[in-house]
């Protein structure tokens, strides 16, 4: 399962893009999105999902 970004809550700060160890987050159109095929939920790299950890808005990076 991958994570997703709730676009209506995203402030577009970009913090998640730089923290994603699998490079699954990109800016597309007017929003950041998580490419499901690339998202590993940080398994094997971190104990917690980095996108959710660095996001300044709670519950914006959530399981899809």
Helical stretch count?
2
Ends: how far apart? Answer: 7 Å
What integer value in Å does the Rg equal?
10 Å
Into which percentage range does the β-strand content fall? 15-25%
Average residue pLDDT: 96
Largest sheet: 2 strands, antiparallel
Order of helices and strands: EHEEHE
Uncertain residue segments = none
Tell me how many strands there are. Answer: 4
| CATH architectural type | 2-Layer Sandwich
Q: Please name the CATH topology.
A: Alpha-Beta Plaits
The secondary-structure class comes to alpha+beta
CATH class: Alpha Beta
Q: How helix-rich are the residues, as a percent range? A: 10-25%
How many domain regions?
1
Q: What is the overall shape?
A: globular
Task: Identify the strand order in the major beta sheet.
Answer: 1-4
Pfam families: Fer4_10 (PF13237)
Cofactor: [4Fe-4S] cluster
GO molecular function: 4 iron, 4 sulfur cluster binding; metal ion binding
InterPro entries: 4Fe4S_Fe-S-bd, 4Fe4S_Fe_S_CS
What does this structure look like?
This protein has a two-stranded antiparallel ribbon with strand order 1-4. The chain has a two-stranded antiparallel ribbon with strand order 2-3. It is of the alpha+beta class. The chain has helices spanning 15-19, 50-54; strands at 3-5, 25-28, 31-34, 61-63. The chain has one domain (3-63): Alpha-Beta Plaits, CATH 3.30.70.20.
